[in-house]
Design goal:
- One of its GO terms (molecular function) is kynurenine-oxoglutarate transaminase activity.
- The chain starts with a helix and ends with a helix.
- Helix 3 packs across helix 10, helix 4 crosses helix 10 and helix 5 crosses helix 6.
- Helix 6 links the parallel strand 3 and strand 4.
- It is globular.
- The longest helix has 21 residues.
- By secondary structure, it is of the alpha/beta class.
- It has two domains: 138 residues, Alpha-Beta Complex (Aspartate Aminotransferase, domain 1), CATH 3.90.1150.10; 219 residues, Aspartate Aminotransferase, domain 2.
- The strands form three sheets. An eight-stranded mixed β-sheet has the order 2-9-8-7-6-3-4-5, with helices on both faces.
- Helix content is 41%, strand content 16%.
- Bound molecules: 4'-deoxy-4'-aminopyridoxal-5'-phosphate and glutamine.
- The site of glutamine has 5 residues, from loops.
- 4'-deoxy-4'-aminopyridoxal-5'-phosphate binds next to helix 5.
C-alpha cells in the first residue's frame, strides 16, 4: 500500500459501531441519528423515484431541484446552477474541497479538538496541518495563537460550526477575525456546516458564505445526513463561488461523479417537508435530557451551543486514574452503554484522555434507556 494509506489510523468510530451492535449496547457514540426522525415523505418519494425509473446517472452537479432547495435554504441568493454541487455526503465534499484547494505540502489551519476526519483527510491529500488549540472549559481559541498559525504556505483554514465534538457555534466576531487572516494570507475558508440547523439558546448559525470579507474565498460543506436523519443515503453538498465551483466539480467528477439519483430526486421533492423550527426544538429537548443525565452522573461539560454532541470531562469520576478508552470500555461492560472516547478528536491524543463524546440525536426512549442502564450498572 502507499505510504499515505498506510499512515491512516482508521476511523475510531467504525470499531465502536461494530462493538455496540455485537453487544446490543445503547450506542451514544456514533453520530447516527434517530432524532430528528427520517421524514416519512422522503421515504415515500424515494420509493416512488425508484419505481418511476430514476435509476440512471444524474447530472454530476446534482439534481437541479435539490440544488434549488439547498440554495433556497441558504437564504441569501445562492445560485443553484453555478454555486451548488451535490456530493456523496459531507465526507466526499470535504475531500473534494481539500483536493481542489491544496497542493502537496501546503498548510491547513485547523482546531484541536475537532472532527476526527479533518486531520486524516488533510494527511491524505498530502497537506500539512497546523493545529490551533481550543481551550476548555468553553472551547474558545486564543486569537493570538490562531494568528500565529498562519504562514505564507497557508492555503486553507478548516472550520466547523456548529462544532463536533465541542458544541461551539462560531460568533460573528470570531468569523470576522478569521476572515481578516484569510484576506491577509490569501487563504480559503472551508467550513463544515452539517449541523447548521441545530443551534440552541438563541445562538445563531452564521455561514461563511455570508461573511462579506470571505467573498470569493469560502467553501461551505453541508449534508442531509443529520438534518434529515438519512446518513445512509449519502447526500451532501458544496457551496462556493462560480469559479471555485468549476474546480470543485472537476474533482467531484473524478471521485464519485455523483450520488444516488433516486435519492436526490426524493430529497428534491420532500426535503422541505421537515420543519426546521420543530427539529431545532426537538434537538434542544434531547440536549437538555442528555445534559441532565450525564451531569447527574458527575461528568462536566460546557453548555452545548449547537450540534448534536455533549463533550464531557470524566475526571470528576475517574480522578484522572483511568483514560477515556478504559472508561468507555468499563461503562460498556458494566452498563451496556457506549460513549465515544474523546482522544481521537485531539491532535495530541494524550490531551483528550479525560474526555468523552455523547451523541444526543436519539429518540427520547433511547436516552431514557441509557439513563436506566447507567443507574442500574
Ligand atoms: N462533518 C461532521 C462535523 C460530522 O460530524 C459528520 C458526521 N457525523 C460528517 C461531516 C459526515 O457527514 P456525511 O454523513 O454527510 O458524510
Ligand atoms: N461523523 C459521524 C460521527 O462523528 C461518524 C461518521 C463516520 O465516521 N462514518 O459520529
Amino acid at each position: 500500500v502507499s505510504a499515505r494509506a498506510a499512515a491512516l489510523a482508521g476511523n475510531s468510530l467504525t470499531g465502536l459501531f461494530t462493538l455496540a451492535r455485537a453487544r446490543g449496547a445503547v450506542d451514544l457514540a456514533v453520530g447516527t441519528p434517530g432524532c430528528p426522525r427520517t421524514p416519512h415523505a422522503l421515504v415515500e418519494e424515494a420509493a416512488r423515484a425508484l419505481r418511476a425509473g430514476r435509476n440512471q446517472y444524474e447530472h454530476p452537479a446534482g439534481d437541479p431541484g435539490l440544488r434549488q432547495w439547498i440554495a433556497e435554504t441558504a437564504g441569501d441568493g445562492a445560485d443553484p446552477d453555478r454555486e451548488i454541487t451535490i456530493t456523496a455526503g459531507a465526507t466526499e465534499a470535504l475531500y473534494v474541497a481539500l483536493l481542489s484547494t491544496l497542493d502537496p505540502g501546503d498548510e491547513v489551519v485547523l482546531f484541536s479538538p475537532g472532527y476526527e476526519q479533518f486531520a486524516a483527510a488533510v494527511a491524505l491529500v498530502g497537506a500539512r496541518p497546523r493545529f490551533v488549540p481550543l481551550h476548555a472549559p468553553d472551547w474558545r481559541h486564543d486569537p493570538a495563537e490562531l494568528a500565529a498559525a498562519f504562514t505564507p504556505r497557508t492555503r486553507a483554514v478548516l472550520l466547523n460550526t456548529p462544532a463536533n465534538p465541542t458544541g461551539r457555534v462560531l460568533t460573528a466576531g470570531e468569523l470576522r477575525d478569521i476572515a481578516g487572516l484569510c484576506a491577509r494570507w490569501n487563504t480559503t475558508a472551508i467550513c463544515d456546516e452539517v449541523y447548521r440547523g441545530f443551534v440552541f439558546d438563541g445562538h445563531e448559525h452564521l455561514s461563511v458564505a455570508r461573511v462579506p470579507e470571505l467573498a470569493g474565498r469560502s467553501i461551505v460543506i453541508g449534508s442531509l445526513s443529520k438534518s434529515h436523519a438519512v446518513s445512509g443515503w449519502r447526500l451532501g453538498f458544496l457551496r462556493s463561488d462560480p469559479e471555485r465551483t468549476t474546480a470543485l466539480r472537476r474533482v467531484h467528477e473524478l471521485t464519485t461523479n455523483g450520488t444516488a439519483a433516486p435519492l436526490q430526486a426524493a430529497a428534491a421533492r420532500a426535503a422541505g417537508s421537515a420543519d426546521p423550527e420543530e427539529i431545532r426544538r426537538e434537538m434542544g429537548r434531547r440536549r437538555d435530557l442528555a445534559q441532565h443525565i450525564f451531569s447527574g452522573l458527575g461528568m462536566k461539560s460546557a453548555p452545548v451551543e449547537g450540534g448534536c454532541f455533549l463533550f464531557a470531562d470524566i475526571s470528576p469520576l475517574t480522578g484522572g486514574r483511568e483514560d477515556c478508552t478504559a472508561f468507555v470500555r468499563r461503562l460498556l461492560d458494566r452498563s451496556g452503554v457506549l460513549l465515544a472516547p474523546g482522544a481521537p478528536f485531539f491532535a495530541d491524543l494524550a490531551q483528550g484522555r479525560n474526555w468523552v463524546r455523547i451523541a444526543f440525536n436519539r429518540p427520547e426512549e433511547t436516552l431514557r434507556e441509557a439513563e436506566h442502564r447507567l443507574a442500574a450498572g
